Amino acid sequence: MLFGYTTQANKLLLEGALPHQVDSALENFGMSMGPFRMLDLVGLDLGWRARKLSGTESPITAKINDALCDLDRYGQKNGKGFYNYVEGSRAPHPAPENEAIYEQVSKDNGFERREISDQEIIDRCILALVNEGAKILEEGVAQRSGDMDVVYINGYGFPIWRGGPMQYANMEGLDVISAKIDEFAKNDPEFWQKADLIGSLSEIKGRFGDAPAPEDRKPVSGFNKSSVAGNL
To answer: Pick from 34, 38, 156, 222: most CB atoms within 10 A?
Structure first.
C-alpha cells in the first residue's frame, strides 16, 4: 500500500508540485509526516545504491531521487536531500536550489510542469492507499478493511480521527472514490487500475464492510518477495 502512496508523491513532483507543498497538504490532511520528509529520514541513497550495484534502470518515479543522490543529497544523514537540515536538527528547511533539478528531470522525461492543487495531492496519494487496500481485501491477504486501518493509524501515522484509509473511503462514499479513480486513470491508466471491489461496492452504495467473507474471496496465488524488494 505504501509503495503506491510514495509513487503518487513522486509523480506529483514530476508533474509540477514541490516537496514542501506535497508534505504540507498531506500533513494538513492529518498525516504525521509527509512523504518527502519520510524519504529524507529513511535516506534517498538506499534505492539509488541498490540500483547502481545491480545495474538496474531507475523507474521514472525515482529519477528525481537519483538525480539528487548524484549530487550527494542523501537526506537527513548528510544534511541535504529534498530539504536542507541544520547540523544537530531534524527540522526540514526548503531547498530552492533543487527546483532546477526538478524542472530538468521533468523536461527530460516528457512532463510539462503545471500548478497542482492541495486537493489533488490528497486525493491521489490517499486514494492510492485505498485502491491497493481494496486489492488486498480481494486477494484475501487481509480479512477486514479495519485491520488495515489499525495498521496505518498505529504504524504509518494516518490520522486516527479519519479512521484509517479504508474508513476514510467509506465516509467519502465509494461511489465518489470510484469516480475519482476513473478520472485519474484517464491520464495514468497503468497505475490507476481500479480494484474490482471498489467498482462493485460503489454500484450498490456499499462500504468495505459489505465485502464478501474472506473464504468467499479469490485465493492468493502467491507472495513474491522479490517484487517487494524491488520496490524499496
So the answer is: 34
